[in-house]
Specification:
By secondary structure, the protein is of the alpha+beta class. It has a domain at 2-61: Beta Barrel (Thrombin, subunit H). It has one helix spanning 49-61; strands at residues 2-4, 16-21, 24-37, 40-47. It has a four-stranded antiparallel sheet. The longest helix has 13 residues, at 49-61.
């Protein structure tokens, strides 16, 4: 748990906290709560630097990513079996 001096208001929970590193913004935490220490407003969160690096590495390598979804057409024909899914109709 870290206490940060960044401004936050109620409803900010889950918002990213950035730090400028080599001229680029880097996410270092997520706001979890707000409070005050010695009369100064603080935001509480956790250091997510390492977990975020691991997550991004996994995403880049394809680990932990759902397989692509195909939105293509599916060809069906008469008498090709009923195990392929779809609506079922009963004849009287």
């Amino acid at each position: 748990m870290v206490a940060m001096t960044c401004d936050a208001i109620f409803g900010s929970s889950g918002s990213p906290v950035f730090k400028m590193e080599a001229g680029r913004p880097v996410i270092v935490s997520l706001v979890s709560a707000i409070g005050d220490v010695n009369g100064e407003q603080v935001s509480y969160g956790m250091d997510i630097t390492e977990p975020l690096k691991e997550l991004l590495s996994n995403l880049r390598s394809g680990r932990g990513v759902y397989p692509p979804v195909s939105f293509g057409a599916k060809r069906i024909g008469i008498g090709e079996g009923r195990s392929s899914g779809g609506a079922r109709f009963l004849k009287p």
